[in-house]
Amino acid sequence: MFHLDKQYRNREILIQRLILFALGLGMVILYFRQILDFFGHIISICMPFIVGGFLGYVLNVLATNLLTWGQRLFGMKVNRFTRFLCNCLAILTLLLLVVVFLFVLFPRIAESLRSFMIDLPASLNAFWLWLLKITENMPSIHDWISQLDFSVDSLSRSTEEFLVWINADAQADLMSSVYNALTSAFSWAFNCMMSVMFAIILLFNKERVVHEGRSFLEAYIPERFLSRCIHILKLIDNTFTGYIGGSCLECLILGTLVGVFSAIIGLPYALLSGLVVGIGALVPMFGALTAALLVALFMALESPANGLYFMILFICIQQVEGNFIYPHVMGKTVGLPPFYVMIAITIGANVAGILGMIVFIPITSCIYQIIREDAAWRLARKRKQAEGQQPEAGENHHV
Questions:
Q1: What pTM, to 2 d.p., does this model score?
Q2: Are the C-beta atoms of 307 and 296 separated by less than 8 Å?
Q3: What are the tens digits of pLDDT across the range 380-397?
């Protein structure tokens, strides 16, 4: 049988791999759109499990925090029963929040929106008259504003025409796509049910999932990379756990403070303003400020003074929250300098919109910490080599 020398055999294997790589790259370039559509279809099929995994992770964060507080306050021991109890409490807590939102907050928010829509024509008219008054000494601006028709009758008529148009369009769409609407509703309900069930199964079987995942890593990852891989996974888990828990608690505190103090000083739409600011605070850096400016604009349509009072109130609350509450809630969970936070927000907004702005913060934090640890390890190795010492063979590749 014909045999090649070892050097020629290695060269032949290298050429074969280069040919296969070139063919694969060519196929990706030629059928890039089809490949994207294929993976998009796969992701859409797996979406209930992706959402369920994320929901299960959030429930696990809540259960872990409940167990931690139980240890601090009541001296609970960590065992199978206490973990099961905290898992059940986490599910009940999330269910209670959903019930409170649907049956307590949502009706009040709907009433606030209805009152706002009813008062909108009169508020716009009052704002228009206020602009006319303050621009009396500026003839060019005053004449341009006076040409705008912001009378109550005109605004009411425009609002009614807009609502009639929406209702007519909605009725036409409903009559023409009843089957599609029912199919979409059934599919949405089925996916939600599957996501919730998958999340609960993950929550009550997390020890088994972690054990099987570790076994999988030990079986398929070389020994020299195993400790590093486990360390990176723990870093990602700690970062996301702290970020999710801290962000939700910080948004809840900020929204509650805004809503309560708005109601105390008699500002309109207090509950709605607190909810909008709390949701906006999920977006780092500029989310809460943007939401507050939007709320202030709505209040200014009714009374410019109310908009000004709300912005003063928000700035005071944000200063207190940022200097005294935020450091204790978030701590060093993310640990990103503001420069990298802005980069993460920009990239996330361009990739996935608002969701990307939220998710890319902990992702960037993980990458930042991994690079810092790797740089510190390499610097330490160079210092040892400069001093004539070789790094130990079993030295971990992280600080």
A1: 0.69
A2: yes
A3: 888 888 887 555 444 455
